[in-house]
Amino acid sequence: MLGLGTIRRVAAELRCDVRAARERDPAAVGVGTAEILLTWPGVQALLAHRVSHALHRRGVPLAPRAIAHLSRTATGVEIHPAARIGRGLFIDHGSGVVIGETATIGDDVTLYQGVTLGGTGFQIGKRHPSVGDRVTVGSGAKLLGPITVGDDAKIGANSVVITDVPDRTTVVGNPGHPVRIDGRRVSGPDADWIHLPDPIADAVQTLNRRVLALEAQVRALGGEPAPPAATGTEDGAQVHLLRPKHGRSPAGG
């Protein structure tokens, strides 16, 4: 059913998956390969998928979907047997991850819990995302439709992405907006979602400054004195971010 070459390929891919877990999960430091295989649901889901995908490519009936179903029940990760996944994928925690039938994932990709690579309709053919190499997708993010996510991209937690994402781009929000971190190129799956720019808060701040400027002009035209400094409760109150965008990352990035 499975040739020697296929078994060797699956074994090589599994070694890469275990190495990815050890390199990208701080909880895996000092943990042996056997323990990772037995207790890491993301690695277990990938192992099951490697086997079910190989059977699917061989045209074996029933078995690929049965393996995928059992894997979903055991790990909480649902991967269609036809999905194409490159080497070194790391699924952190794993619970709630869904990867659709026509999805493709490149090498060294990191997915966190709750990520969906899903479709948007009932059309036949390509209907799921294509994810490039070294992409990081944050917890709860939804990538929908036959979109392309470029290499080295980063998708913020709970973002909803329905359009193509260029290489080396960070996307946040619903719908997703491309942003950059402190004007620097994003690199590495450092899981630092705290320092991502917030385009909605930036827009609110811009509108707030504009309103203050217009109020000042109206007062000047009416001969009114300028108001006292803003206290947060009077006219001219400022908009304060709930979190900083700069400084050291608490995630260690």
What does the model show?
The protein has a domain of 176 residues: 3 Solenoid (UDP N-Acetylglucosamine Acyltransferase, domain 1). The strands form three sheets. The chain has a six-stranded mixed sheet. Strands 1-4-7-10-13 form a five-stranded parallel sheet. A hairpin with a 4-residue loop joins strand 14 and strand 15. Helices cover 32% and strands 13% of the residues. The chain is elongated. The chain has 253 residues and is an alpha/beta fold.
Detail the topology: elements first, then pairings:
Blueprint: H1 4-24, H2 33-39, H3 41-57, H4 63-75, E1 78-79, E2 84-85, E3 90-91, E4 98-99, E5 104-105, E6 110-111, E7 116-118, E8 130-131, E9 136-137, E10 142-144, E11 148-149, E12 154-155, E13 160-161, E14 170-172, E15 177-179, H5 199-222
Parallel strand pairs: 1-4, 2-5, 3-6, 4-7, 5-8, 6-9, 7-10, 8-11, 9-12, 10-13, 12-14
Antiparallel strand pairs: 14-15
Key attributes of the depicted protein:
single chain; 253 residues; alpha/beta; UDP N-Acetylglucosamine Acyltransferase, domain 1; 6-stranded mixed β-sheet; 5-stranded parallel β-sheet; 5 helices; 15 strands; elongated; disordered C terminus
